[in-house]
Design a protein that fits this description.
360 residues, alpha/beta, D-Maltodextrin-Binding Protein, domain 2, nine-stranded mixed β-sheet, globular
């Protein structure tokens, strides 16, 4: 090969090789630009995703059985409270005295051992004596219509709630279980003359013994666990009690008659510790106010439906019902004046007048 041609070929090859090396170096030293990011707005700061707060748990002490009409009412209250608080509160119900019997429920609330407690108005009276006023005979007239008016914000009810707050408890809800009626074993009672001389079972309540005696009957304190045998053996001739109690405890075959005179409403009081209630956020307090209105309405409707179911069952079991005329009912009402006179400390005249005016 011609030396000049060979030299030229080598030189050309070297140039090409050099270019290839330079191109490779150039590519590796010039990385592709990163994707363009949008500029942050002035003053903006990146924030982590917000976490929803875990709901708080409110323990509810009750003596009620879960599988009962009253238990269903409490489940309704649980649902209403959780809905109105938008899930910020979860209510845990401790049934059948798991956190203390009914008499101790409000005490547990006061001690902040639980957030909610349930007790009958009679047991609530152990802390706030004036709650026994609801056991005054014929205070609430007009059946369920009258009870609705009273529970919807009667000035008399508001006074009881205010007295309760003075003791450190906030009333947040109620349960209703209808009324007490006169059930008897031997004959249909229509007017007070029919009740004269009857032996009627009472609780230890002086109020109940008072109106039974005012009717000319003989009050006899009998423990509830012994009442069925007492009725069957004739130790007592009857008692004032709700439809549900007769039906649930299967006393039907011991009783034959019922006078539907709605002498006393059956009301249970649900409380929270007042200090705890006041510590809630304004939103939660408003939620409880809304729950009070909605829950009381729903529970009242449930109570009335439950009464109808129990009455039908009792009729099927052989109990005969009698509703007194207005004139007959007045005979009963005219006899209870002395009971009111003896209990002015729990039911003052002006308070009774407020209640009765609110029912008109």
């Amino acid at each position: 090969m011609n030396p000049r041609i060979a030299e030229s070929t080598l030189t050309g090859f070297a140039v090409v090789l050099s270019c290839l090396v330079l191109m490779a170096v150039g590519c590796s030293s010039s990385p592709a630009p990163a994707p363009t990011q949008p500029a942050a707005k002035s003053g903006a700061t990146a924030q982590p995703a917000a976490k929803s707060a875990a709901p708080v748990v409110w323990k509810w002490a009750t003596n009620t059985s879960e599988n009962s009409a009253k238990g269903d009412m409490q489940k309704t209250w649980k649902k209403v409270i959780e809905e109105k608080t938008k899930g910020q509160v979860q209510v845990e119900i401790y049934w059948e005295g798991a956190l203390g019997a009914e008499q101790k429920a409000h005490e547990a609330v006061l001690q902040k051992a639980v957030q909610m407690g349930l007790a009958s108005n009679s047991n609530t009276a152990a802390i706030v004596p004036r709650w026994s006023a609801l056991d005054m005979p014929f205070l609430i007239t007009g059946g369920y219509d009258g009870l609705r008016k009273f529970m919807a914000g009667s000035p008399g009810l508001k006074e009881l709630e205010a007295d309760t707050e003075k003791k450190g408890l906030k009333v947040v809800a109620y349960l209703q279980e209808g009324f007490r009626h006169l059930f008897t074993t031997k004959k249909q009672v229509k007017v007070p003359a029919d009740a004269k001389g009857l032996k009627l079972r009472t609780t230890p309540s002086a109020l109940e013994a008072g109106y039974v005696a005012a009717f000319g009957s003989n009050p006899s304190v009998v423990d509830w666990g012994e009442i069925y045998l007492a009725l069957k053996q004739g130790t007592v001739d009857g008692y004032n009690v709700a439809y549900s109690s007769v039906n649930n405890f299967k006393h039907t075959d011991a009783l034959k008659y019922c006078l539907e005179y709605s002498i006393v409403p059956i009301v249970s009081v649900i409380t929270m510790n007042l200090e705890h209630y006041n510590s809630l956020t304004p939103e939660l307090r408003q939620a409880m106010v809304d729950a009070y209105t909605e829950g009381n309405k729903q529970v009242m409707e449930m109570s009335q439906r439950d009464d109808e179911v129990h009455k039908a069952a009792l009729e099927k079991g052989g109990v005969t019902f009698y509703t007194p005329t207005a004139a007959e009912l007045k005979q009963w009402q005219d006899l209870v004046g002395p009971v009111y006179e003896k209990n002015l400390n729990v039911a003052p005249v002006d308070w009774v007048d407020k209640v009765r005016t609110s029912l008109k």
